[in-house]
Amino acid sequence: MRTGIIAAGTWLADLIKFIPYYPAPGNLVSIEKEEVGLGGCAHNVLMDLAKLQSGLPLYAAGCIGKDAYGDLILKTVMEQRINAKYLCQLSSVPTSYTDVMVAKAGTTRTFFHNRGANAEFGIEYIDQIDVPAKIFHLGYLLLLDKLEEPDKFYQLKAARVFHELQQKGYETSVDVVSEESDRFRNVLLPCLPYINYLVINEVEAGSCYGVSLRGDNGEILLDQVRLVAVDLMKAGVNTLCCIHFPEGGYALHRSGEEGFCPSYKIQSNEIVSTVGAGDAFCAGVLYAAHEGLGLKDTLRFANALAHFNLLHATCCGGAPRLKEVYDFIKVNKI
């Protein structure tokens, strides 16, 4: 019987800079504080899962540089007792990094990214992976250049990868990065017939169909969220589609079961940063899926992990233990 979760894809250093506001082009703003953290989809999801201390077997895969940041990533992974056999250090390219600009008390963030070693992670690395994990999570698409190359049968190589992973016995999960481009639909949709769990935010979900899931006043449009989730399921998602946003999370199961859970209450002055909240939510969904939690409990668990994340500047600094999560959920009813 398969057990555990493998997360593969992006690994990077987050160079976080706090600014009071975004300057107009050509103008200057002072950096008030700086922090360095590690990030990337695979890193963030695995760290959030590891810090739960649930005993779940965890596996890492991807490409990092043979440099100081790469060494730090490898050291951090091994300290959390995550299997790093398929985390490859390359001497030809640097570890990927992102300059993260955080403004307005942590509520606005923008990313400037150097693709580095992540761009080298392709099918030749994934084909070598052989672990007894139940769920194989891959992300972020749109930052993994080799997986976005065309494929004659599957349209792009990422779709081929997901199909082959399912044939090997994995349940598959994908995450994508929020990006202002017209590539979004062309990269994600061909993968959906080979995806068990799709966890994306409202901007990413809307980008699949060229629509906004917010109204004229910025309010989330839950009816529109549901319609997009239905379309994503029709496009091929096998098991569960989750769309998350600051106000909460919506989920639609292949069985037709659906649900919405609001976010746990938090004051704006309590939010340190939102930089890893989406990955924390995703980690919560994957843990819940692995453990067979019901749909509403899945959303509560994912919302709780995202809530804890908001209290820390780095991607995973606020990650709680499993007991803390359940104690929090018990006290804070939603």
Automatic annotation (TrEMBL):
Every Carbohydrate kinase PfkB domain range: 16-317
InterPro entries noted in UniProt: Carboh/pur_kinase_PfkB_CS, PfkB_dom, Ribokinase-like
One GO CC term on file: cytosol
Taxonomy, superkingdom: Bacteria
Keywords: Kinase, Transferase
Molecular function GO labels: kinase activity
Protein's UniProt name: Sugar kinase
Biological source species: Parabacteroides distasonis
Organism placement in taxonomy: Bacteria, Pseudomonadati, Bacteroidota, Bacteroidia, Bacteroidales
